[in-house]
Amino acid sequence: MANRNLFSDATGSIGGRRKPPDGEFDITPMIDVTFLLLIFFMVSSTMQGEPDIDIPPAQHSLGIDAAGAAVVTILAPANSSESSQIILGDVKGQAGNLNEVKQYIESHVREGRLQVVIKAEGDVPHGLVEDVARQIKSVEGVEIFMGVGDKPVE
Question: Residue 108's domain spans which residues?
Answer without folding.
Answer: 66-147
